């Protein structure tokens, strides 16, 4: 129970970077992001819609991503998110930070 | 397609409705959930299971909605202080109450003021291009010498609103009742008026050339010294309207106005006739 909590907090704390990673590959819309994270983690991590939108909003406010209307017929127009120049830099920075934290934790735990 | 999903989301968002950003979040979320629900059904899940799984994928949305609506409230609070001379391009003021708000000399390009109460607001010399004022209340608002290019006024409440000497190219007024609104010395050649009624509106010294006012209703409207070349007022209703000019050019232009099928009171008709303009096919009442 408590292990799960720690794990999910740790994962959730990196949502912004996960989303940035997906957007460095291609522009994507909300459900696509949630779905890809589920698939890539082979169901180990389920990103909730609420967490995703809260993250997207933060990234947008920080200027890491922008959005535009796609023109899809099925299910109406979708908002596509795109990573900005700043977002690319943020992603690279977060990756480095994580590599560093991982190395330190590996020696300590 | 899926009413139950819609109702569920309506229920969650019910207490937070009203701001544009919350509305957008709701629409985005609903689109995602519908796609997931469709996929689950396609995988062979029954409706009940698909619904439960879809709802479960939302997580703690209330927290996110609160974040979003708080963001909008921060903007609302700022309004009562001052907004003079600030850069607020693309801001969301939808539904806010900002009576006597001070927005003069501000960059507000593309801002959304839909359904906002902007009574008595000062928007002098501001960049309001592409702004949305649909459904807003602009009673006593001052929008003189502002750039309003491409902005929208659909069902906007316009009482004593002053648009004089502002840039109104491509501005659209639709389904609006304009009462004592001033458009003095304004270039209105590329402004669009659709299904509007005009009471006490002042078009003095403005250029209305080529405008289409077919079927519109004018009561106590001033067209004094206005450019009226090629204006169409077919089927319009005119009561106590003033057409006064001081030049031959004005009357030559007035003669080109198409009053076909218009209805007007004796005073307006007599005024036109007195100036040598005798519109044919009009009903004088």
From TrEMBL, chain A:
Pfam families: PadR
InterPro entries: Metal_resp_DNA-bind_regulator, Tscrpt_reg_PadR_N, WH-like_DNA-bd_sf, WH_DNA-bd_sf
Record-annotated Transcription regulator PadR N-terminal domain positions: 19-92
UniProt source species: Rhizocola hellebori
PANTHER family hit by this protein: PADR-FAMILY TRANSCRIPTIONAL REGULATOR (PTHR33169), TRANSCRIPTIONAL REGULATOR RV3488 (PTHR33169:SF14)
The protein, known as: PadR family transcriptional regulator
Superkingdom field: Bacteria
Membrane-spanning residues: none
TrEMBL record, chain B:
SUPFAM superfamilies: Pentapeptide repeat-like
Gene3D superfamilies from the UniProt entry: E3 ubiquitin-protein ligase SopA
Domain of life: Bacteria
Database matches in InterPro entries: 5peptide_repeat (IPR001646), Pentapeptide-BTB/POZ_domain (IPR051082), Perm_prefix_1 (IPR047928)
Full protein name: Pentapeptide repeat-containing protein
Protein source organism: Rhizocola hellebori
């Amino acid at each position: 129970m408590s292990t799960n909590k720690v794990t999910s907090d740790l994962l959730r704390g990196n949502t912004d970077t996960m989303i940035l990673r997906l957007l460095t590959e291609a522009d994507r819309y909300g459900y696509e992001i949630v779905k890809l994270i589920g698939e890539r983690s082979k169901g180990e991590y389920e990103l909730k819609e609420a967490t995703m939108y809260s993250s997207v909003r933060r990234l947008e406010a920080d200027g890491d991503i922008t959005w535009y209307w796609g023109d899809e017929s099925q299910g109406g127009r979708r908002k596509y998110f795109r990573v900005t120049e700043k977002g690319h830099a943020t992603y690279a920075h977060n990756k480095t930070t994580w590599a560093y934290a991982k190395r330190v934790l590996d020696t300590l735990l | 397609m899926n009413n139950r999903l819609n109702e569920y989301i309506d229920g969650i968002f019910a207490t937070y409705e009203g701001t544009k950003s919350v509305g957008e979040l709701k629409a985005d979320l609903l689109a995602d959930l519908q796609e997931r629900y469709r996929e689950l059904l396609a995988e062979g899940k029954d409706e009940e299971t698909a619904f439960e799984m879809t709802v479960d994928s939302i997580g703690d949305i209330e927290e996110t909605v609160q974040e979003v609506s708080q963001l909008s409230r921060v903007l609302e609070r700022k309004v009562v202080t001052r907004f003079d001379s600030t850069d607020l391009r693309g801001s969301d003021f939808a539904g806010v109450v900002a009576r006597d708000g001070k927005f003069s000399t501000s960059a507000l390009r593309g801002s959304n003021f839909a359904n906002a109460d902007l009574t008595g607001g000062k928007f002098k010399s501001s960049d309001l291009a592409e702004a949305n004022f649909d459904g807003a209340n602009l009673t006593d608002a001052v929008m003189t010498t502002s750039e309003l290019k491409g902005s929208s006024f659909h069902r906007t409440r316009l009482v004593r609103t002053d648009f004089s000497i502002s840039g109104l190219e491509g501005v659209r007024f639709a389904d609006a009742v304009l009462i004592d609104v001033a458009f003095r010395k304004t270039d209105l050649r590329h402004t669009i008026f659709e299904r509007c009624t005009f009471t006490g509106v002042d078009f003095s010294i403005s250029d209305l050339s080529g405008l289409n006012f077919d079927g519109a209703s004018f009561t106590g409207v001033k067209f004094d010294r206005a450019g009226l070349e090629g204006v169409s007022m077919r089927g319009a209703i005119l009561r106590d309207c003033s057409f006064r000019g001081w030049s031959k050019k004005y009357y030559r232009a007035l003669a080109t106005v198409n009053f076909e099928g218009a209805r007007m009171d004796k005073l307006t008709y007599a005024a036109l006739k007195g100036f040598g303009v005798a519109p044919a096919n009009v009903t004088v009442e």
